[in-house]
What we know:
The chain has 235 residues and is an alpha/beta fold. It contains nine helices and ten strands. Helix 3 packs across helix 4 (115-128) and helix 4 (115-128) packs across helix 5 (144-157). Residues 44-45, 166 line the site of magnesium ion.
Amino acid sequence: MLSVEDLRKGFGSGRRRLEVLKGINLKVEKGELVSLMGPSGCGKSTLLNIIGGLLEADSGRISLENFDYGTKSPNKVVDVRRNGVGWIFQDFHLVERLSALDNVAFSLELSGMSAKEAEDRAWTALERVGLGDRMEFIPDQLSGGQQQRVAVARAISGSRPLILADEPTGNLDVKSGEEILDLFQDLCKNDGISVLMVTHDPVLASRADRMLLLKDGVTAASDIRSAWGIEELES
Ligand SMILES: Nc1ncnc2c1ncn2[C@@H]1O[C@H](COP(=O)(O)OP(=O)(O)OP(=O)(O)O)[C@@H](O)[C@H]1O
Ligand SMILES: [Mg+2]
């Protein structure tokens, strides 16, 4: 489904040059929930931005279904952003003055869908995330967990195969965070959507099918012990 091969990315030049990603290799299968952990500043968001077609890598290759990119500049990968990936952010990124329904429909209309079809799809997506009775509420009238579910509805409404979630539970209480994880598991298992999720929370990370640790510019398979830093404590 998603395959990342020897991806490299640095910022700046000369003595200020900072190599962030030093040869990332990873795969995410259809319907798989993968969590990505790692120290602050190690490059998790940078990696997601490249996979999401918002930033180009210096070298390496990404294939996502039929899309081949990685080093292509963001203006050459409009299709990836439109049809390949859906985004979920820590701070929801909803439009304050629009209802839940219009928040989801609006992003579909931006991608060129007719108003009627966008509304139908938005309706279905909001039902799917359990917000059938909150369609007309604006973000202020929703709890944090509900706002994040609107964002999930927006991410899945365009039938995109991959969801990139950058600390999706960072602004949520424990219970709402657990509920977002429940929803991710459900979407992966029953809708065949794949989710790549960055989190700093080892408990939530361990609920994924697989955990990856990004450290010193490369990813490695991880387990709950290394996620908690137990190995480092012992060594
Ligand atoms: N556009 C940029 N220009 C220069 N440096 C950048 C740029 N974007 C990111 N960096 C640097 O790359 C490194 C990785 O940043 P990134 O945001 O990917 O880290 P992160 O793992 O997501 O951290 P956090 O857990 O704090 O969100 C940091 O040192 C950051 O300062
Ligand atoms: Mg980040």
